[in-house]
Amino acid sequence: MAIYNVTDATFKNEMQSEGLTLVNFWAPWCGPCRMFAPIIEAYDADGNNDVKILKVNVDENVETASLFQIMGIPATFLFKDGKLVDKKTGVMPKEDLKQFIAKHK
């Protein structure tokens, strides 16, 4: 599956899909976010097409960030069939990201 950059206007529509959706809240000035981005990209590139990946820039999409009360970034939220099932703040190694997702399949 691909990685989609979403906005306040498109977030709700993107969340209506069935299955797993990983949402990465980030900002361009955030060092840990820049470290985590290639890990998410590598996970996707490995052919893990069982999860939809959305990226939300918190500076440009304040409404969505406020809705989920994002206080620290990077923040990773995992939804199953549109419902929040897990969340974590901070950078995760690729193996931890795989486990974070796998426990909700």
TrEMBL record:
One of its GO terms (molecular function) is protein-disulfide reductase activity. This is Thioredoxin. The keyword Protein biosynthesis does not apply. It holds the Pfam family Thioredoxin. Belongs to the thioredoxin family. PROSITE patterns: THIOREDOXIN_1, THIOREDOXIN_2. InterPro entries: Thioredoxin (IPR005746), Thioredoxin-like_sf (IPR036249), Thioredoxin_CS (IPR017937), Thioredoxin_domain (IPR013766). Residues 1-105 form the Thioredoxin domain. Keywords: Disulfide bond, Electron transport, Redox-active center, Transport.
